[in-house]
Amino acid sequence: MRTAVLQAAGFTYTEVLVAMVLIAVLLVPALDALRGGVQGGDIHAAQASQHYRVLGRMEDVLAQPFADLAAAADAAGSPTTIVAAYSDVAGTAERRVVYLARFDGDDADGDSDGFTGVDDDLIWIRVAIADTPTGLETLATP
Predict the structure, then answer these.
(1) What's this model's pTM, rounded to 2 decimal places?
(2) Which 3 state secondary structure label does DSSP give 98?
């Protein structure tokens, strides 16, 4: 009489246990790696929002007549003075501040300082988000 030997199909208990241990050990670092990417997305969204707010204000300022910008730069008197006419009101969240100053583009006085010996037809413009590194600078001419 012959007896048939049946082959059991599937995984052994040891194989299942090893697979579960490997998944548990490798899943933690994989999830940690993804956490940085998720947090980076939030940071990028905030920086992009600030950048476009600054860019919008820069375009608004550049749309002003040169004579108005020149008068505001002369009234400010310093590149570190906030020009209230073009800046957001103090206390505004993510306040956009605008700085205007006459600029020395040709360095005719030879001191390598762009804010001394200024040219009449050149204005330096900086728009920034207060208390952040986000900002843009440009020069305007008539």
Answers:
(1) 0.72
(2) strand
DSSP 131: T
Mean pLDDT over 52-58 rounds to: 96
DSSP 53: H
| Residue 1 scores a pLDDT above 60 | no
Nearest to 137 by CA among 86, 34, 64, 62: 62
| Residue 133 CB partners (closer than 8 Å, separation 6+) | none
Please, which pLDDT band fits residue 89 given cuts at 50, 70 and 90? very high
Among 39, 53, 45, 37, CA closest to 134: 53
d(CA 138, CA 102): 12
- What ranges do the domains of the chain cover? 13-140
Count of C-beta atoms within a 10 Å radius of residue 57: 20
